[in-house]
Amino acid sequence: DIILTWAIQSTASKPVNVVARIFRATRVLRVVQLFHSFPELRKMIIAFLSVLRTIFWGFILIMCLVGCWALIALQVLEPYNRDFDHEYPACNDIFLSFGHATLYFFQTLVSGDDWGKCSIPLMMSYPELFFIFAASLFTVQLGFTNLVLAVIVDKAAETRESMKAHEYKTRKENQDCQVSAIEDLLQRLDTNANGFISLDEVVQGLQGDT
Hints:
- About 10% of the residues are buried.
- By secondary structure, this protein is mostly helical.
- It contains nine helices and no strands.
- The model has no long low-confidence stretch (mean pLDDT about 80).
């Protein structure tokens, strides 16, 4: 590593510099070797990679639902919030635009950060707003987020079963190869093809191998 770093920094020639960087990038292969040394780590990495697509689409759907609640907030909550004097100045702008409303619902419903700082004072003054805040909380955080989590868990379980089936198939193939090798060895030892292996045939087979 020290030699490669020195070569990259001290060499002005671009081809040599590129070659040095390629050799330096091969250090990543050392991480791959850890997967063979620690099977549990390899299984976790494979399971995580298998659910990346599910996580991505789950995030997209959650953001679509958050965007829907942001549109509802602009139409319903913004007039109430405009005339309300919040203790925290930042709460005055949470429904100022679609972007502000989306960021607020993502912060409170997905991240779970300061849900009641801006909403509870509004609900205390306008109790009818409770149904909107409660509905957004139940649909996003308690409903759809848990649904996405359940799909991710199912996908990880499916990947685990697939890995078990692959490991069983590989083990079965190795056993079949070993059995075939033993059968071939026994056939070569049975020189007279009578179905029995005598001590002389074993000795002759060993002498022939040596």
